């Protein structure tokens, strides 16, 4: 007999940002590094979606 779960509880905590105005240079560098990682992640996702569509059409 299958069990149905009708309620899902998600809890999250947000830590306060303790950075002051003097850390702008390091956040710019982190953003540039994160941009490359973001582009790579998007490319990987697009590749996987296209592969899934190709497999679906082959059936």
The sequence of SSEs as H and E is H
The rounded Rg comes to: 21 Å
Largest sheet: none
Helix-strand category: mainly alpha
How many strands in all?
0
Terminal Cα span: 31 Å
Walk me through the structure.
The protein is mainly α and 59 residues long. The chain has a domain at 34-58. It contains 1 helix and no strands. It has one helix spanning 24-58. It is flat and about 50 Å long. It starts with 23 loop residues before the first helix and ends with a helix.
Task: Name the features.
59 residues, 1 helix, mainly alpha, flat, DUF5908
Provide the fold topology.
Elements: H1 24-58
Brief sketch in words of this structure:
With 59 residues, this protein is an all-alpha fold.
């Amino acid at each position: 007999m299958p069990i149905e779960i009708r309620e899902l509880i998600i809890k999250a905590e947000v830590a306060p940002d303790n950075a002051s105005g003097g850390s702008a240079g390091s956040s710019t560098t982190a953003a540039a590094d994160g941009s490359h990682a973001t582009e790579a992640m998007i490319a990987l996702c697009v590749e996987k979606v296209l592969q899934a569509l190709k497999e679906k059409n082959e059936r």
